[in-house]
Queue: 3 jobs
Job 1
Amino acid sequence: EDKVVQSPLSLVVHEGDTVTLNCSYEVTNFRSLLWYKQEKKAPTFLFMLTSSGIEKKSGRLSSILDKKELFSILNITATQTGDSAVYLCAVEAVYGGSQGNLIFGKGTKLSVKP
Amino acid sequence: NAGVTQTPKFRVLKTGQSMTLLCAQDMNHEYMYWYRQDPGMGLRLIHYSVGEGTTAKGEVPDGYNVSRLKKQNFLLGLESAAPSQTSVYFCASRRTSDVGRQYFGPGTRLTVT
């Protein structure tokens, strides 16, 4: 059975801290891994990773994928209160042609205290 | 562009009632999805569609039906609502060429009493 496991499930830090969120997966027919940020409403896209060892960066956020060890991490440096959200990891499993479905982890709830 | 929109935003149903949730997208995306999100459970796929007139079951399809009569709309129906269907429902869409990345609507919070 395909599964995606995120850890920790929740995390409380103070502004300025650096955090690392983890995502491990067991998925047949892997195509990509995605990170989303969810602040009360719709998940918003952060990164998509398809190749091992290549870091994606956007400002203070970065992510890397290890396809051999089947995990990804999301790093946030110099955290701000606006980073408080649930961070979702999803893995795309392919079922033929271009059709792929996302399998989501349960999310990591990050709370950043001032 | 409005992106992905969902109607209604909130709804309270009594057990046994029926309703339809509407998802609309103006991005000309081929693929559309319906998810439910429950506390501590993440997002789970209910049904999806790879194009107008086609639908397929996801991970948790029981108790739901869907239709995709027009490319821009994807309807999720509950024929006889049950308290276990209390959840937040998200619609998403993507282009065929946009590997992986899905665009999400704002969600519908449904309570079944």
Job 2
Amino acid sequence: AQSVTQLDSQVPVFEEAPVELRCNYSSSVSVYLFWYVQYPNQGLQLLLKYLSGSTLVKGINGFEAEFNKSQTSFHLRKPSVHISDTAEYFCAVSGIAGNMLTFGGGTRLMVKP
Amino acid sequence: DAGVIQSPRHEVTEMGQEVTLRCKPISGHNSLFWYRQTMMRGLELLIYFNNNVPIDDSGMPEDRFSAKMPNASFSTLKIQPSEPRDSAVYFCASSPGAREFFGPGTRLTVL
């Protein structure tokens, strides 16, 4: 079984500032990791995913995440946020055997002008 | 509250058969979403309903897929006929207007 913890339920940040959304997971097996974004009144969209290979993963809209196996973390970062990045962000994990996704509780990113 | 309920949790069927997935949203939530999860494509939004009305079905892959929401407490996703490439985990989620609450998913295997 896996579990995902997103340590911050809300992250307020000013426009053009950098941001990091934290995600830690626990699992007894090797995992795949995902970040999803949900804009207001829309469904989830995949931002990026880590399956294998380079631990630094680049996604859409300038986001990137780094898989740190020793710290069981997969933090999401963006060097300069925009107002349009205001949304809910979900970290998710699945076992590589194809187990179902386990989602974190979500982090609301609020970008202020 | 029991959360979003999906049934069955696992379904194995043969190519060409009809498959019906069921979802009971959280009471009081006015939006319902169907997603498909695969390792290669991640989570894809198939369709969502607002107040039992389909709002956006652009994610439905083809005519073999159909979804209904006859009332506020029940929705179905039907695949007819099913094909091996439909094998995936199908999630239902409901929302009161802000974030979504996901069900446990149905793992569908089409042989």
Job 3
Amino acid sequence: KQEVTQIPAALSVPEGENLVLNCSFTDSAIYNLQWFRQDPGKGLTSLLLIQSSQREQTSGRLNASLDKSSGRSTLYIAASQPGDSATYLCAVRKGGGADGLTFGKGTHLIIQP
Amino acid sequence: GAVVSQHPSRVICKSGTSVKIECRSLDFQATTMFWYRQFPKQSLMLMATSNEGSKATYEQGVEKDKFLINHASLTLSTLTVTSAHPEDSSFYICSASNRAAEAFFGQGTRLTVV
């Protein structure tokens, strides 16, 4: 059974810092990996999708990497801003679009102004 | 990105009643949608896979008679919580994927059973 772990569980940093969120998964046979952002009481916003054949994806200040063989992914946030404060979730999909996602418990991020 | 709309965002119901939650993919067709449940400060747990035109597939431990799923069209899936009890109170959220298997989520529904 796939298990996804995210470290750290919580993180509080001053504005402007670069930071790294970690995600690990136990079964390397994945189809893709996706990073999401969740604001309190809200749904999930897709940040980055990495297919199993890819090593990294970038969107603005966000960069996600994937090392499938070692079961790891990192989300790099550059020049953090207070608006980045949220819970960041990592999820993996085993098969194609017909399979659901397995989520980690998330990293609760607070960016101090 | 694609848009998935979920309604209602909040619902309070009396114990023993049923509640229906709708999930729509607004700008793409989804043969498969997914329903998740999230407890406070916990991650999302997949409840069931909703398949257009056929029966839903439920995860182990999820009661199919309590959580009825209907996927009548390529853009609409519904989750009905039947005979709701306080322990069913939770955050329910749906998802649909595009052709690249990128998942998009609805806004979620906060269900409170009193």
